[in-house]
Design goal:
This protein has helices spanning about 55-65, 70-75; strands at about 10-15, 30-40, 45-50, 80-85, 85-90, 95, 100, 105-115, 125-130. With about 130 residues, it is mainly β. The strands form two sheets. The protein has a six-stranded antiparallel beta sheet, with no helix packed on it. Strands 7-3-9 form a three-stranded antiparallel beta sheet, with helices on one face. It is elongated.
Amino acid sequence: VRVSAKAVYSKYSIEPASPINFGAMMKGTKKTQIVVLENKGVLNFKFRIHQAPQDASVLEDKSSKQGESATSATKRSARKESSTQGHLNLGMFTVSPCSGSIAPWGQQKIIVECLAGQEGTCEEQLYIDITGR
């Protein structure tokens, strides 16, 4: 009896690469940008988008030294954000969908909307957590 298996991990691409900049906007206006998450592997994978904690750069440094992904370290300590029906609301930004599954060689368009509210700069950091990476 011949038995074989092939161990693989999730392969993906994210376009455009970070950062996403909406530029200057008139107060009260809305702009939309699209991020494409593509599965370049042979297995389905699930993704979840969540907000990074305020100390994300500290976690990234620690996790890289300990061999753990910053995303999984952040997942355990992420602060609360508003997420309903596939939408994630972070200040002036709305992200949808914020979770899902992508088949091999498939892709998911993720919509990032910015509704310019109060004057000043608004900046948020998002993490895309992909299973089996």
